[in-house]
Amino acid sequence: MVKQPGEYFVVMLVAVNQAKERVVAAYHKSAHEIRSKYPPGSLQCPFCGQGVFPRERKGFVLHFVHQHSCTSNIARHPESPEHEEGKLKLAKFLKEQIKDDPEQNATVEVEYHLPNCGENGRIADVALVYKNGNLLIAECQLSQITPDELEQRTRDYHSIGADVLWFLGKEADTSENRAWLRSVFGAVGRIDFKYDPA
What we know:
Order of helices and strands: EEHEEHEEEHEHE
Distance between the termini: 25 Å
Helix content: 10-25%
Shape: globular
Structural class: alpha/beta
Number of domains: 2
């Protein structure tokens, strides 16, 4: 696949190991560290089960890619390096919010699979997963979206009993979207940063 200007590859921040434990690429120092820890073929896509491997690519956070095309029917699309970085910033933000929880009743998960959400399931950018089953979803929306689309995705999350926080940036941060968020949630989450690859 040849990358066109403005086009991004579909990358994943999360894989699963043979014990079905989640492995977040960006929580490691390098692709070499991941390869040293996990033998070839031991990491899989959490959505289709096919093999994935770690990759470092200039302008992107450390991530996984498929050996072959993903066969999952969950709607996914290429995301910008800023969006990938935004997910990690939201995860860090949520971890800060629960750090003083003495009983650690929740974990923060990046790219969290919700198989019963929406028509074919959804992948939440970040989820605060409580031990009692409650979910708080944090979505980083940078690409263009309409209030109707925000509403549909919010309904999908509410249909499984999950709360959602939207963080808008770039093309998604419009007056119409801010007005919709204020009318529904009483506030607007915004994410504003510049991606600065090492």
